[in-house]
């Protein structure tokens, strides 16, 4: 009996290792195809905001990329997407809007989605702000997050290209572990 328990344990461990590696490879594929200015709308996904409206490092990296991209492609408009978490004193979208404005992006190029509390809601609620019939969009998020964001966007009927912001080293391990679980859940449940 003890041998069977050991064998089952080894098999389960092997399965977990294979799934962990597979999910990591899936996440690496998320950074393609790279955006090139052909989509008229870019959705910048929200991330944690610290007290006083200070963007977390993850969010700041996303916003820096957004500014660069919007300056390079003046034909592109942005949707800043993110509501207010229980531990946040303002919406992620409001902090993102201010950052873009403070860095020279015209307010007329920015739409605000401030009700979402998940990646799926970011995309679903942002879709309502887009002109009817818009299919092609750009998603901007941290590199680890893009595979799931693309998967969810495609499930909503979008054609997607992406902009990958760097993940801060200080939170990389925590976020990539959590994202593997979220990606697996998304593949199983669908959102």
UniProtKB/TrEMBL annotation:
InterPro entries: Cell_Envelope_Assoc, DUF218, Rossmann-like_a/b/a_fold. Keywords: Membrane, Transmembrane, Transmembrane helix. The chain crosses the membrane at residues 6-23. Gene3D superfamilies: HUPs. Residues 41-174 form the DUF218 domain. Signal peptide: none annotated. The keyword Transcription regulation does not apply. It comes from the Bacteria. The keyword Cell membrane does not apply. CDD domains: YdcF-like (cd06259). This is YdcF family protein.
């Amino acid at each position: 009996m003890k041998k069977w328990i050991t064998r089952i344990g080894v098999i389960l461990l092997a399965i977990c290792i294979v799934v962990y590696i597979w999910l990591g490879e899936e996440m690496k594929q998320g950074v393609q195809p790279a955006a090139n200015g052909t989509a008229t709308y870019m959705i910048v996904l929200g991330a944690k905001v610290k007290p006083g409206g200070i963007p977390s490092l993850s969010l700041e990296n996303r916003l820096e990329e957004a500014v660069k991209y919007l300056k390079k492609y003046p034909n592109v408009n942005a949707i800043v997407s993110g509501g207010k978490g229980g531990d946040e004193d303002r919406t992620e979208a409001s902090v993102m809007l201010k950052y873009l404005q403070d860095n020279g992006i015209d307010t007329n190029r920015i739409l605000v989605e401030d009700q979402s509390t998940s990646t799926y809601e970011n995309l679903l609620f942002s879709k309502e702000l887009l002109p009817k019939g818009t299919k092609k969009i750009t998603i901007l998020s941290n590199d680890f997050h893009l595979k799931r964001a693309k998967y969810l966007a495609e499930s909503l009927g979008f054609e997607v290209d992406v902009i990958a912001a760097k993940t801060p080293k200080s939170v990389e391990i925590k976020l990539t572990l959590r994202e593997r679980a979220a990606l697996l859940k998304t593949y199983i449940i669908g959102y």
